[in-house]
Hints:
DNA-binding transcription factor activity; HTH_TetR; 75% helix; Tetracycline Repressor, domain 2; TetR_C_22; elongated; mainly alpha
Amino acid sequence: MDPALELQDDPQELMPRRRPTQERSKRKFDALLASSRELLVEVGFESFTCEEVAARAEVPIGTLYQFFANKYVIVCELNRQDLVAVSRELADFHGEIPSLDWLRHMNQLVDHLASLWVTDPSRREVWLAMQSTPSTRATGAIHEKEFAEVVSQMLRPLTPRTPRVRRTMMAEVLVHVVYSMLNFSVQDEQSHAEAVTELKRLMVAYLLVAEKESRSSGTAERAGARPAAKSERR
Length: 234
């Protein structure tokens, strides 16, 4: 572990030194990330090295370092890549809430996310690697907040009278719980299906309470406004 990363008092977001703009560089960049995923699944983060990534991608080690300062930056980019992909998935789901059948749509979304964690074991390896240092954890928190903004927008029709700050917090809680539970669901000797079922129960209960509170808030506001309106007429 890099001592500089472990001992930072104020961890900073870890980002690539540069992202490619030309097609040839993009191919090398993508090859490095694809090789990183394969290596993570095979050997885990502790044995993961930039030299092996470059060798597998058939890219000079100097080229790797043009993009990534170290393996911690690589794994943070993989994490960002995963969340961007899920955000695109959410774009298809967005608009279904708050239809009368939103619970079914939510179940389908959770099933889809859960299937990604089963069919792509690198997602769990990336998530675990993100817990390795203060800087990777700080970067992961930033990624989660950005993703939570997308979720917050989805919650808006379901909780129209909930203050924006509270809705943002709710979204951040949901994102953190979902990813923690997905990691839990693919642990050894764990029943994936049962864990996903429990995740759905948690989410449904949480969202139903949030929806009820938002509606009750609107009813209370209207009830409080009526006497005032009557007194104005007098």
